[in-house]
User: Fold this.
Amino acid sequence: MSFLITRDLGPIAFSEFDEVLKLPNGQTVAELKTIARQVASQNPKIKLTHAVTTLVNGAGMPVRDLDQAYPILMQRALRPWDDTLQILKIQTVIDGEGNDAIVLFDQNELAYPMSFGRPSNAFFEDDTRSDDEIRQAIVSRLKVQMRGIPPIDPAEPKKFAAAVSKLARLAVTDSAGGVAAAEVLLSLRNGHAWPASLTSLRSFDHHNLDAAVEAIRYSAQNNTDPRTVIDNGDQIFDRIALAHPMIYRPLRAQADFLDEQAKVEVWKCPHCHRQQQRLQHPNWLQAAAKVPWCERLWDDDRHPELDESDMRLEGTYPLVLKKPES
Assistant:
C-alpha cells in the first residue's frame, strides 16, 4: 500500500503517553513511575531504574526494563488485534492528502500509517500551524484514542475482515446494494473524495447492513484502512472505484478547490435532450461501463431499449471554485 508524506514532523517519545499506557494489572506507566520514585526516595540503595523494572515485572510483564516494555504497550494501545507486533518508533507526518498522520515502525522495519484528517478550516484556508502545534495535536488525538479503546475481542479483526470481504463482493455487482457497498468501502478509504450517503444503507438487506455497520464501527474505532485486511486490497478497491465513477465527488478536498486542471463533463441524452454533469475522474477510461444512462429512461417513451439509452458526452469545462468568504 502506498503512503505519500509531504511533511516530516519528527518522532514522538513513548514517555509522552505514560498517563494512558496501561500495564496488564491496570496501572498506568505514570502511576508506576510515581510509585518507583517513592520507593527509591525512601531507600537510597535502590536505583530508580531497578525499582521501575521490578514494578513492571510485578505488573505482569517479564521484561528487562521499561524500554523493552514500551513497544509492547504501544502495540496493545494502537494495534491491539496484532499481538505479534512491537512498535519501535512513531513518526508524525503530514500525508499526501494533507492529513495529520503518524507512521508506526515495527521490529521488522515495516511501516503502518494512520491518518487523523485535517482541521475543519484547512479545507478552505492554508494550514498555518507550526510543526510543534501539529505534533501536539496528533499526540492529543492519540491519547484520546488510547483512553477510549475498549478491551479487544480476539474475534473482532476476523469479523471486520469478513465484513469487508462481503461488502467487496457486493460492490462489484450492478445493483443498488452494490452502489451502497462501494460507498461504504471507498468512504472508509478516503471519505473526502468518495463520500457515502447514509440513505444508501436502506438498500441493504439485514445481512449486508450488519456487515456495513461492522466495517464502519471497527474501522473508526481502530483507525484501520479496510484495504489492509483483505488479499489484493489495493487492486480490489481500484476495481470498485472504476466500477462506480458517479460516487467520486471530491469537492470537499482543498486540492480540488484550487486545482485548475479539474474538469466537469457535460452529458446529454440524444432522445429527450436532458443534460447531466459530473466531475471528471482523472483515471477514468471512456469505456461503455462508465457512460451514464438518462434518468428518464423508465418513464419517458421517447427512450428506446436500455442498451441504446446511453447519454452522449457533449464536452467538458474547467471547474473553478472560489474559497468561501470568511
